[in-house]
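Weekly puzzle thread! Below is a chain. First person to post its structure in token form gets bragging rights.
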Amino acid sequence: MDKQSKKEIMYERMSEKKKEVKVVRRIVFIVTVVLLLVLGIGAFAAYSYVTDALEPVDADSEKVVEIEVPIGSNLDSISALLEENGLIKDARIYKYYVKFKNQADFQAGTYGLLPSMTLDEITESLKTGKVYREPLFNITVPEGLTLDQIAENVIAKRTKYSAEEFMAKMEDEAYIDELIVKYPALLTEEIKGENVRYALEGYLFPATYPFYEEDPSLDLIIENMIKATESNVVQYQAVLEEMDKTPHWLLTFASLLEEEATAGSDRNTIASVFYNRIEKDMPLQTDPTVIYAMGEHKERLFNKDYEFQHPYSTYTNKGLPPGPIAAAGASSIAAVLDPADTEYLYFLADKEGKNHFSTTYEEHLKKRDEYIGQ
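Winning reply:
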């Protein structure tokens, strides 16, 4: 082989190697670009995911989610609890966020949190033992109010809804049926009894309700009150089952205590009077039921009023009325199930609001003459 041929072969080989190097470089370049794109997309996706996980679950939600943080809970279990209840988007992100912010010392307890709360608000709530969020306004339902009074004195004064709109809801049978399906542990067909004046009378719990939007729906307002009643009644479910009684019976009984209670009065002792009367097949003879039956407020009842024939009157009917006559508070509900052990059959309140109890009618009459001059 001559020198010229060798040079040509070497040249061809060098050309081929150059081509291979170019191909390799191109492949390396393409692979590098692809890897960078993948890493970039992955990094962007990870950044977007983390950023999204740090935002509230639903910034517009006004739904209060109640959770129970048991004693001894750690950050892992609390994070999982928050995610399970839809209050945060990712338990791991929340856990790392809390650690990064060096937050600790969460308190056990029951919390009413909202999906619209930020991670900082949730964290602060769990640290302080209270919901760390300022409501735009509150609605307070005092104890002992009837639905008519709630309509006039609470709803019409504190919301954009009129008393008429509120009462229309209270008489909407389709709406009542929806609530029965939604809250079966509390609302039963008993609330639609033939002689029941309003199905939801006594079922809107007296309390202060915070709202975080300017114009909450009427349904939201009503259901917050029903949920509060449910939480106060469901805790006694086992006791009621043992007694073979229902939530309707409990709230009806409790409403009588609420209306009879005066400053410093003993609900448990009043409850004992009612139990004793029922046991002896005596009518309860409590004035607030007559006033409710007559449908008008009266400072004083006269003899003819006690003869007023109506299913709610406990003077003309034995036992409890068909349903609650007002919204009973927690202390009245508890007193129904924990009556004092007495032989009392009568009681009256003097002008200062102090109750005086008697075992006989003669004793009762003497105390009436002594304390209220009748």
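Puzzle host: Confirmed. Bonus trivia for everyone else. The beta strands are 65-69, 109-113, 137-140, 208-211, 346-349, 355-358.
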